[in-house]
Amino acid sequence: MNRVLVTGATGFIGLEVARQLSQRGARPRLMVRRPLRGALLASMDAELVQGDLESPESLERAVQGVDTVIHLGARAVFEEYSLVRPTIVDGTVSLMQASKNAGVKTFVFGSSLLVYASQKTPIDGRTPAEPRSGYGRAKLEAEKVLVPMAEQAGINLAVIRLPHVYGARDIMFEQVKSGRVFFPGSGNNLYAQLHVEDAARILVRAAEMGWRGTSPVADHLSVSWNDFFDVIAKFYPRFRRHGIPTWMATLGTRAYTPIRRTRRMPSVYTPDAVHGWNLHLPVESGLLWDELGLEPKYPTINEGIPAALDECVSFQWIHSLGDHKA
């Protein structure tokens, strides 16, 4: 892997991928859509380039001189198919076409476990994809288009279906830092997890090896959301999880939909999000890790959540010197 382009470099997972590549001395090229967010990358040894998945011309420029693409950019929220398709499907196809034209050798696509329906047994390489949300449908559609394009061009295509990726800067921990999370559903469903550092390590290693294939990945222990929140509370006793009945959350997000659409901004308050949080999506332990010759730094949430909380303290929770509250 000589020159690598990272799309979505100012997003939650992309930022960590960029950080790891920069620390390795790879000096990655990082595609930025909104210039103001480029400040997040200022401390990295990297090349920044303006680009937009809805501008094929900018993508042609972004991939020039690159041999590897790690593609994480998109409208990454659980919204309607019509809203996420332009970036997840059309943008991904445009990026692959630009990559073909530029002679890119390896293309890593960050997909999602939401390409699956609820599963009674752990997901493995034989589990059929049956998306139940617009986001999952768009991800699977992009995968299906990428495969023949990559084969025709002789590009090594790695499709990594990521689980819930967590860390100090993700959407959920934004709520955790406030001391409470409002969660739709009982929280008893099993859901695969992965610390953001390990998600980035997987993506980078797949790129380095030129790994080819499609695979889900997670840490070594899928847990319920109640287990997830219990570990947070163990290390942060002030934390509270407030459950909302699924039906109530669904009705509320449906009522909010017209307002959300007028604002034209991505949102996590959607019926698809409520449905997604309540899926049963465990993943077989060790899947993909062995193939890539890696072990997770945080094999379960018992190691990963305390590390995420430590980062919250270091970088986010800056307490006033006059704070005398217990």
Supply Rg.
19 Å
Class from helix and strand fractions? alpha/beta
Output the number of helix runs: 11
Helix content: 40-55%
Number of strands: 13
* Strand ordering within the main sheet: 3-2-1-4-5-6-11
Indicate the low-confidence ranges by residue numbers. 317-326
The overall pLDDT, averaged over residues, is 90
Main β sheet profile: 7 strands, parallel
Distance between the termini: 51 Å
**Which overall shape is indicated by the principal axes computed on the Cα atoms?**
globular
The helix/strand order is EHEEHEHEHEEHEEEHEEHEHHHH
Structure description:
The structure is a single chain. It contains 11 helices and 13 strands. It is of the alpha/beta class. The strands form 4 sheets. Strands 3-2-1-4-5-6-11 form a 7-stranded parallel sheet, sandwiched between helices. A two-stranded parallel ribbon has the order 7-10. Strands 8-13 form a two-stranded parallel sheet. Helix 1 links the parallel strand 1 and strand 2 (29-32). Helix 1 crosses helix 6 and helix 7 (225-235) packs across helix 11 (301-315). The longest helix has 22 residues, at 81-102.
